[in-house]
Amino acid sequence: MEATNGDSNKPTSVTNGDREDAGGFKLKFCTVCASNQNRSMEAHLRLAQANYPVISFGTGSLVRLPGPTIHQPNVYPFNKVSYDTIYKELDGKDHRLYTANGLLNMIGRNRQIKWGPERWQDWQPGVPRVEQGKDRGHIGTEGGIVDIVFTCEERCWDAVIDDLLNRGSPLNRPVHVINVDIKDNHEEASIGGQGILELADALNSAAKEERDAMSGTVFDMASAASRASFDERVPDIIGNWQEKWPNMPATWTLAWF
Q: Is 97 helix (H, G, I), strand (E, B) or coil?
């Protein structure tokens, strides 16, 4: 992992990135995996380092992490337990085991990104995110809305789509939901995070072009009509990206908040 472990309970950075920020329009992103621990958090970090507004979630009923045996996972609730608490608990249980399997390194990274794992189904799009001001990638997400959702596994993509359908599109706002299939291990998560960043860059470049071709105010309304020219380009952008990243099959749909 690129991030180093920290000692603080919460992230201290309130700026979005390490990459030089060219400024201008930026799409808002969301990354999703099962437990908001490995794949979604690696992608969250990569996007935040690149100065993109980004939030992240898990779709599982509980946060599940490997334990001493396959039948003894470590289980935590979403939204209630911080990464710092999880880190300290696992470190106290078996420092050698959880160092060897990479869990402490992963969670140490996570606690430098945001407070704790959040569940997608508990998120209320459009409700201001006022308590996440120290999260990496927070700037630009204060309004509680995103343009692109990246999921990291087909079952997570299904869960997101089903949840959006069940909500009934109260905001009447389009959102692209893209699954990038990433195996749930540390090495593949790192590779997947880079792939997602490259796709985000391509999508953002196209969005900026379409925004510059019309009134920025109109594009920023994010209605079906104002985003139609961008929306039509998304499948081709994903297709071109897929040629470079054939080992991470991508699936896409246009959904609604």
A: helix
